[in-house]
Specification:
Helix content is 11%, strand content 32%. The protein contains 4 helices and 26 strands. Helix 1 runs antiparallel to helix 2. Strands 1, 2, 4, 7, 9, 10 and 13 form a 7-stranded antiparallel beta sheet that branches. A 6-stranded mixed beta sheet has the order 15-14-16-17-24-20, covered by helices on one side. It folds into 2 domains: 181 residues, Sandwich (Immunoglobulin-like); 175 residues, Immunoglobulin-like (Sandwich), CATH 2.60.40. The longest helix has 19 residues. Strand 1 and strand 2 form a beta hairpin. The chain is mostly beta strands. It is found in: Cell membrane.
């Protein structure tokens, strides 16, 4: 019998334990508990445990056959944003509701509105799909925090840009708190799959302040929908990888082979191919299929961590992010890193930096992102498809060491997706006979090898 779900599997295991001894039962139940833990935490991000996208509906007025609501989308994720072509929000109506009009957004389809005479609704579909308006739409179609093409910044990078909103007038719905039925089956694409939305829940009504901040008004009814992200749902393979090098070892640890899967191995383009000069080669496809440069790792993005210099009280790291996708410009890119010495960051050059403290007692995670109008855009693959920075960190005498791979990050996330790290046994090691101070010759040799390798 084939087992397709976690529930079926648990029942099968529990049934089989009837034939086991008490000790064997404990072992099997422990294994089931561990499996259930991993199964239930697929959408849990340990570096951002409270990160989610919350969609809030505020009913602000009643109409003869329904209500007018303000829908606000807040991205509370610290380092995961929604980039172009933007978010897509969908749901199912509980009754036979229609959308009379919208401001600040629009549905992708009108649906069958043939039964309406005179005024025709904006959308008559049972399952409407809503997208943001593009920048520059006429003023009478705009709403506060709208019209950004669906781009939603992360909370940690740009709190102001992490909000999107629109207004919707709903008809054939209830006209009181007791008769309104909440929409169901919410879906969120950002812009691809990965988000899972829970059911709508009625919450205390939102309180608004008037522009002069002297009077408070209150929504007639409010409900929330919470959507969480799972990298497993977004892609079965990683979307980035990490390579490593140091001044004290000539070895350059490259990304693992096929780190991001090798499905595109036969459709990749070499860096010197004449096809790159063809018109339209860099035009993004509607399904966002990448056009990758041929590499052994076949990843759209590579993050390189180079331990550069060792001073008496400080040490310096160079970080380089390279784009291997000829059809993708990464706007508002973010790089989240977990490393034990990030609690002593002294200076970051040419990147913005913000510490992340997911747990009060641990301060080992930070977020790097580009400076506005300088390097916050990671260009498509090619000579300009990389951004670089250096990080200066103060040594902690009690914990600092270059041995056993301590100088390398534990986890690296690019745009909120965890990157594939090399296996620990392949990390550049500290020679037993060499001091931990930097050697000018070794550093020069490694730097030259690094430059040649990065240009390859």
């Amino acid at each position: 019998m084939e087992v397709n779900t976690y529930s079926d599997l648990s029942h099968k295991i529990l049934f089989q334990t009837e034939c086991y001894s008490a000790r064997q039962k404990r072992v099997v139940l422990l294994a089931l508990l561990i499996f259930a833990t991993f199964y239930s935490t697929e959408a849990y991000d340990p570096l951002d445990p409270n990160g989610n996208i919350t969609i809030k509906w505020d009913v602000v007025s009643w109409t003869p056959d329904g209500y007018v609501a303000v829908v606000t989308m807040n991205n509370f994720q610290m380092y995961r944003h929604i980039n172009a072509p933007g978010w897509t929000l969908g749901w199912s109506w509980a009754k036979k509701e229609v959308i009379w009009s919208m401001v600040g957004a629009q549905t992708t389809e009108q649906g069958d509105c043939s039964k309406f005479k005179g005024n025709v609704p904006h959308c008559c579909k049972k399952t409407p799909v809503v997208v943001d308006l593009l920048p520059g739409v006429p003023y009478n179609q705009q709403f506060s925090n709208c019209c950004k093409g669906g781009v939603l910044a992360s909370w940690g990078q740009d709190p102001v840009g992490s909000v999107s909103a629109f207004q919707v007038s709903v008809g054939l719905a209830g006209t009181s708190n007791k008769t309104v039925k909440l929409p169901k089956n919410f879906t969120l694409l950002g812009p691809g799959p990965g988000y899972t939305c829970g059911p709508a829940k009625v919450v205390p009504s939102t309180v608004f302040l008037t522009p002069d901040r002297r009077r408070k008004t209150q929504a007639l009814m409010t409900w929330n929908v919470t959507c969480t992200y799972s990298q497993f749902l977004a892609s079965k393979n990683p979307t980035c990888c990490v390579s490593l090098s140091t001044f004290y070892n000539d070895t350059i640890t490259s990304c693992p082979t096929c780190a991001c899967g090798c499905q595109n191995k036969h459709n990749c383009i070499k860096s010197n191919s004449k096809l790159l000069h063809k018109d339209g080669i860099n035009t993004p496809k509607k399904d966002n299929t990448p056009l990758l440069q041929c590499t052994h790792h076949m990843c759209p993005v590579r993050v390189h961590w180079h331990v550069k210099i060792n001073y008496k009280d400080y040490w310096r790291v160079k970080v380089a992010v390279t784009n291997f996708n000829y059809r993708m410009n990464y706007t508002l890119w973010t790089l989240a890193v977990q490393h034990p010495n990030l609690n002593n960051v002294t200076q970051v050059f040419s990147f913005d930096y913000k510490p992340l403290v997911p747990y009060e007692s641990i301060n080992d995670t930070g977020m790097f992102y580009g400076m506005k109008f300088y390097n916050d855009l990671l260009m498509e693959a090619g000579p300009f498809g990389n951004v670089q920075s250096e990080v200066l960190m103060k040594k902690d005498k009690d914990t600092f060491t270059f041995k056993q791979g301590w100088a390398f990050p534990r986890k690296v996330y690019f745009n909120g997706d965890e990157c594939q790290m090399p296996p620990p046994e392949s990390y550049p090691f500290l020679p037993n006979s060499a001091p931990e101070g930097s050697s000018a010759v070794t550093e020069l040799t490694t730097s030259l090898l690094l430059i040649i390798w990065l240009l390859w």
